[in-house]
Amino acid sequence: MIKGLIVFIFLLSYGYAHDNYYYKNNHKTELHPASKQHPNINYYQNTKGYLFGVTDTLIIKLKDAHYLPSLLDTFELTLEKALGNNLYLLKTSNKDLTIDIANSLHELSYIEYI
Questions:
Q1: Are the C-beta atoms of residues 80 and 69 closer than 8 Å to each other?
Q2: What digits encode the pLDDT tens for the residues 51-70?
Q3: Residue 59 CA: distances (Å) to CA of 74, 91, 92, 112
Q4: Which has the least CB within 10 A, 37, 44, 74, 97?
């Protein structure tokens, strides 16, 4: 029961929160929406003024492939292509959530890198 409640709270907060950071070398780096616009790309700037374009795709490396099905279900991702040994190109259901999903994945122990 407690585990189900924790998962529910996580998913609820996940659905409404938008992260204003990303991980660079395991350190959080602040992001702010940029004024540049494109229908398929969300643009952000970090505190140093570097511009980042974010789409609806992620490249991840798993420590073990058996985690992939639950990862896809939990984060509403689709497998676009297997790129190599436990390396995958995944697509998010909404490009506005790509950074949030990437940050959540970064914190999982079975993700080698993202």
A1: no
A2: 989 999 999 999 999 999 99
A3: 17, 9, 11, 11
A4: 37
Which run of H or E residues covers position 108? none
109 Cβ contact list (under 8 Å, min separation 6): 63
pTM: 0.75
**SS3 (DSSP) at 82:** strand
**Cα dist from 69 to 56, 65, 66, 77, whole Å:** 19, 9, 7, 10
Strands of 51-54's sheet, edge to edge? Answer: 21-24, 27-33, 42-46, 51-54
How far apart CA 46 and CA 32 sit, in angstroms, is 6
6-17 exposure pattern, b = at least 16 Cβ within 10 A, e = fewer:
eeeeeeeeeeee
Instruction: Give the other-Cβ count within 10 Å of 44's Cβ.
Output: 19
Residue ranges of domains in the chain = 19-113
